[in-house]
Specification:
By secondary structure, this protein is an alpha/beta fold. It folds into 2 domains: 201 residues, FAD/NAD(P)-binding domain (3-Layer(bba) Sandwich), CATH 3.50.50; 114 residues, FAD/NAD(P)-binding domain, CATH 3.50.50.60. Helices cover 24% and strands 24% of the residues. The strands form 4 sheets. Strands 1, 2, 3, 4, 5, 6 and 17 form a 7-stranded mixed sheet that branches. The protein has a 5-stranded parallel sheet with strand order 8-15-9-10-11, with helices on one face.
Amino acid sequence: MQTPKNIFDVIIIGGGPIGIACALEAEKKKLSYLILEKGCLVNSLYHYPTNMTFFSTSEKLELNGIPFISNNPKPRKAEALEYYRRITTSNNININLFEKVTQVEAEGNEHEVTTIKGKYKAKNVVIATGFYDIPNYLNIPGEDLPKVAHYYGDPHYYATQKTIVVGASNSAVDAALEIYRKGGEVTMIVRKEEIGRRVKYWVRPDIDNRIKEGSIKALFNANLKEIRENDVIIETPEGEQKLENDFVLMLTGYRPNFEFLKKMGINLSDDGRKIPQYDAETMETNVKGIYLAGVICGGVETHKWFIENSRVHAEMIMEDLSKKAKA
């Protein structure tokens, strides 16, 4: 394993849009930096559904004032991947891909960052790891069967098949509509009495009408109780139902890696929301020299922070680090 050779002003953990924004701001402030990303460039975006359209317009996803030109006001996944790739390569961003961070330890006024490939030292660390890595499991029998997936990619895979979609958020609704349009037989399992209120406004009428006409079946106030090889058991207000089934998409949301934060000594709120402790002016946590950026700031409330409203975190953090460097 490599040993630390030099000390960076800041190591950024996470190579998504906010991590890249932090790197661009570090360059502006003439701070030495390194991004460490456990997967490919903008790894979370890469694993989004193939045909995903962003809720935000392209200008709201821009970094550093670099224009994001898309075919439509709301860009698609492929356009975003290309945009962030071009920013990274054209600016020679210092980033190590496929290098997972396993530990961050404070050493006096510095931090030692250990990865699967080596060790690095930094005066400061920014955590910009997002929330898409750990699904919210239901912990029911059969959830580990091969027919079950917690991520959705392309609808073609489910063509002509009986597919259960668990959830009522944007991801679940998009999957249900796309699979239905590829000839799949879709049943949505929704634990509340209606489709989620934060579903994209231009998609909502489509899913409501498909359910109303019976093209997509939806069971409301229902819970998936058990998954078996050829069917599923569902709890409904009318009692248990057994449905023949080929695939189950558990699109019940995702959460940040809270254990990683706690290992570093970052405090989390004990009210169930698990919001990390940080200074709203600088984004520095209760651990000196460790900062947060992006969606991870919201704890389990992953809908609070997006690219468009957390880009400013990069400026706030690097401004604080610049002031510290000059002090």
